[in-house]
Backbone:
């Protein structure tokens, strides 16, 4: 299928509740959902209204976000052989990881309640459900990596995460060399896979880089990309005279979940030393991503060169952003007056992303 109009669902906005710290501090709520996909920001010297495909307020459930954002359609398109991506963007502490993964549970703690599961787990369940209903012979595998201080690291490799080179080829575009891919056949298997990536037994130290600072006690210090590879062969019966390669047409799709590290102001987080270096690298890569989105939002005839090579993140997202992929952006924001500047920045970011079209 080839189209000049993007099949990607437009960006969705999720507004998290005020935290207990913000409430004690006396922060005002400056973000309000007006319904019909409209969000209003009202504060001193700032009064703006933004329109999106969907806006989820603080009371929205995880299921409502999954169904209302277009995530189910992305799963179905991945089964049809498309390359699909969902990424969560926003300030640190805005709820990106919760939206994608739900509450983070360690291997020794009880699993999260079903109602709290994030887009990832709900997509896995939908993927397996759809594959059974379609009667297709489905092969699923997963790869998981992070970009930490501009180094690409494999989170599924045995032992400490190893750094892998990022290559380019005319046929594959940008790709990670020697990245490990693991097969799975059940929800339990993919859940174990995620726990393996987040925990390193027996010490229980996290493999993905996280730290605590003034804005977030569990701040992701890297961008994480979990990719589900979907290979299906239709279960059909054809005459024996048909050559074997044509007997079972195959489709190969991908479903990629991108948990971006949060944008942050170093002064407000109180970061210093290694945390400051991490924050600067995070902000540089997010700036490169924003620059690419701004250029992609221009009409095709007026676009200049798209600088995907400016960061490892934009290289890996090149096809998702402006190539042949289908992409959903979930922008997470805080309603607090203390976070007004970052919230406005995220809303403008998402507004630009609405104008990006691809050719799936």
Residues:
């Amino acid at each position: 299928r080839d189209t000049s109009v993007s099949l990607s669902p437009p960006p969705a906005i999720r507004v998290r509740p005020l935290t207990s710290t913000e409430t004690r501090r006396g922060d005002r709520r400056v973000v309000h959902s007006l319904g019909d996909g409209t969000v209003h920001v009202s504060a001193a010297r700032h009064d703006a209204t933004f329109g999106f495909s969907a806006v989820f307020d603080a009371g929205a459930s995880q299921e409502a976000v999954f169904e209302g954002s277009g995530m189910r359609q992305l799963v179905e398109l991945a089964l049809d052989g498309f390359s699909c991506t969902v990424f969560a963007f926003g300030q640190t502490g805005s709820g990106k990881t919760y939206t994608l993964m739900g509450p983070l549970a360690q291997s020794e703690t009880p699993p999260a309640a079903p109602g709290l599961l994030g887009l990832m787990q709900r997509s896995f369940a939908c993927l397996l459900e759809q594959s059974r209903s379609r009667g297709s012979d489905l092969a699923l595998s997963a790869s998981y990596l992070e970009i930490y201080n501009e180094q690409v690291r494999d989170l599924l490799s045995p032992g400490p995460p190893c750094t892998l080179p990022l290559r380019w080829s005319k046929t594959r575009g940008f790709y990670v060399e020697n990245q490990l891919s693991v097969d799975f056949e059940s929800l339990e298997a993919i859940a174990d896979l995620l726990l393996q990536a987040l925990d390193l037994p027996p010490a229980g130290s996290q493999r993905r880089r996280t730290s605590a600072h003034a804005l977030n006690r569990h701040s992701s210090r890297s961008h994480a990309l979990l990719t589900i590879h979907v290979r299906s062969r239709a279960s059909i019966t054809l005459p024996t005279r048909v050559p074997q390669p044509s007997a079972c047409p195959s489709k190969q799709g991908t479903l990629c979940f991108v948990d971006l590290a949060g944008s942050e102001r170093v002064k407000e987080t109180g970061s210093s030393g290694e945390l400051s270096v991490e924050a600067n690298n995070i902000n540089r890569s997010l700036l490169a991503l924003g620059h690419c989105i701004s250029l992609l939002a221009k009409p095709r005839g007026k676009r200049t060169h798209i600088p995907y090579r400016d960061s490892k993140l934009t290289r890996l997202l090149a096809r998702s952003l402006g190539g042949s992929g289908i992409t959903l952006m979930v922008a997470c924001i805080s309603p607090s007056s203390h976070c007004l500047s970052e919230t406005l920045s995220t809303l403008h970011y998402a507004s630009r992303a609405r104008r990006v079209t691809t050719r799936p």
Q: What stands out?
A: Residues 12-102+117-205+220-234+251-265+274-297+304-354 form a domain with the Kinesin fold (CATH 3.40.850.10). The chain has one domain: 12-102+117-205+220-234+251-265+274-297+304-354. Residues 289 and 321 are 9 Å apart (CA to CA). DSSP finds twelve helices and 19 strands in the chain.
